[in-house]
Amino acid sequence: MILLLLVGGVLFIYSCFNLYSGIYNEGLVGIAVSLIMILEYFYFLMEERKNDKFTKWLLENYYEIIEGNAEYNGIKIYSDTELKQYHACFSFITLTTKVSSRYFVKDHHFTPVRNLIYSLATLVFGWWSLPRGPIYTLECLFKNLFGGTKVTVNELLSLRETPFTQNTQL
To answer: SS3 of 69, please?
Structure first.
């Protein structure tokens, strides 16, 4: 994800130099693209923090979820609640990175816009590295095309450390 910020920053400086040199078309387009990259970095950082907060909440409310008494931001969360996650890919020369969205509760969040954001970011910025860029781009687009990665709360909790596994001694 830091790749977006680094490439966006370098492109911004280069574009400012183009403007200073009188190459206005390239400079303006470069500034626009670099600002989009920098904004995407902060958007994905915000999504990552929301995901960490939600995952932490899941672990802290493990027993309430199992009992069916858990509520997160006004949404009832059960162990069989289905969550969705979307994916994006960013590449530059030989560097490629994949990012995932936060978890969205199926039927409670309007996700087509998020799917579109992640898919467009992948289409624009995912191809530009060999050999992984095109491979990861197609992988992310394929997953997003079919509604993202779906997982239940129970499956997600089984992948993380739960209160049952924290104090278990063998």
So the answer is: coil
pLDDT value, residue 146: 94
Q: Does pTM top 0.70 for this prediction?
A: yes
Spell out, as residue ranges, where the chain has pLDDT lower than 50: 164-165, 167-170
Q: What is the model's pLDDT at position 169?
A: 42
Helices marked H in the chain? 2-20, 24-60, 62-67, 112-125, 132-145, 153-159, 163-166
Q: In Å, how far from its chain's centre is CA 107?
A: 19
DSSP state of 170: -
End-to-end CA distance of the chain: 39
Q: Is the dihedral of CA 9, 87, 84, 66 positive or negative?
A: negative
3-state secondary structure of 79: coil
